[in-house]
Design goal:
Blueprint (H helix, E strand, L loop, with lengths): L3 E4 L2 E4 L10 H5 L2 E9 L2 E2 L2 H14 L8 H14 L5 E8 L2 E2 L8 E2 L3 E6 L6 H6 L1 E5 L20 H12 L4 E5 L5 E4 L3 E6 L2 E4 L10 H13 L3 E3 L4 H5 L3 E6 L3 E8 L2 E2 L7 H15 L1
Parallel strand pairs: 9-10, 9-16, 13-14
Antiparallel strand pairs: 1-2, 1-8, 3-4, 3-5, 5-8, 6-7, 10-11, 12-13, 12-15, 15-16, 16-17
Helix pairs in contact: 6-8
The protein binds 4'-deoxy-4'-aminopyridoxal-5'-phosphate (PMP).
4'-deoxy-4'-aminopyridoxal-5'-phosphate binds next to helix 6 and strand 15.
Length: about 280
């Protein structure tokens, strides 16, 4: 049976799941989304993902046509219908279709889409050996233009940085903010380890406040690993003991080289290894 995709409350075969070409989600990137994972049939931190989705929608004056409770039930139903236990779930809410022109008042029927599928962010070898990343010249969107905490359908800022990374032979790229401070990667948050403590940019660095990031901060606290949300520069990264990225799709992945500088010995470090193992336990608990 073909994968069943939820569009506005109905299920369609993958091939027939469609929305209008007049949808402002397509025409203008006007909408919001979420990406989350289920492990053994249970969505990891679903409440946090739904809170972020509804807050993103609120920030762009988009009313999601179903309640959070209904959304949660529909996500679970989508997993069940597709008999998926370990899956990646993409929630999309578009502004809906309308006439041409930016005015959201010209649209009606915001579309809720739920896709439950599998995703492989990075090849397995990078989880063992670590990623090499480069800094993109494209800076992260200025938070006064659009808050980076809104997970909007317009990801061109990050895609431009991703292209720069790919052109430099790296599958992920680092993005700085307007002040030249470390913000995050194109689809992942970044951490370093220094002298036994983990450090990650704070929310005011203009980042998406990652749910995996927050889970790692909680995990570190429970393991007695000091954790700080601080301003980081590229220099801090270059002289770090370890570095890793976090994201719902990527989970926790080590970084061993940044802009041609090898991080410490170039091997995946002990704290990263520990956090990867503990994160696995947490998501399956
Ligand atoms: N930063 C950006 C720009 C992202 O798109 C994402 C999610 N793909 C993340 C960080 C990680 O967030 P989360 O852990 O909530 O998936």
């Amino acid at each position: 049976m073909s994968l069943q995709i939820y569009v506005a409350g109905q299920y369609y075969d993958k091939e027939n799941a469609k929305i209008s070409v007049y949808d402002h989600g397509l025409l203008y990137g006007d909408g919001v989304f979420e990406g989350m994972r289920s492990y053994s049939g249970k969505v990891f931190r679903m409440k946090e993902h739904l809170d972020r989705l509804y807050e993103s929608a609120l920030a762009i004056c988009l009313t999601i046509p179903i309640s959070k409770e209904q959304m949660e039930a529909d996500v679970n139903k989508t997993l069940q219908i597709n008999a998926l236990k370990d899956a990646y779930i993409r929630l999309v809410v578009t502004r809906g279709s309308g006439s041409l022109g930016l005015d959201p008042n010209r649209t009606s029927n915001p579309q809720v889409i739920i896709i439950a599928d599998s995703i492989s962010m990075y090849p397995e070898e990078y989880y063992q050996k670590g990623l090499k990343i480069v800094t993109a010249a494209t800076i992260r969107n200025h938070p006064a233009a659009l808050s980076s905490r809104v997970k909007s359908l317009n990801y061109l800022n990050n895609i431009m940085a991703k292209i720069e990374g790919l052109q430099a032979g790296c599958i992920e790229a680092l993005m700085l903010n307007i002040k030249g401070e470390v913000a995050e990667c194109t689809g992942d948050n970044i951490f370093i380890v220094k002298n036994g403590a983990i450090r990650t940019p704070s929310k005011d660095a203009g980042i998406l406040e990652g749910i995996t990031r927050n889970a790692i901060l909680d995990l570190a606290k429970s393991l007695g690993i000091p954790a700080e949300e601080v301003t980081l520069t590229r220099h801090d990264l270059f002289v770090s003991d370890e570095c890793f990225l976090t994201g719902s799709a990527a989970e926790v992945i080590p970084v061993v080289s940044i802009d041609g500088r090898t991080i410490a010995s170039g091997n995946v470090g002990p704290i990263t290894t520990k956090l990867i193992a503990e994160f696995k336990k947490l998501v399956h608990s």
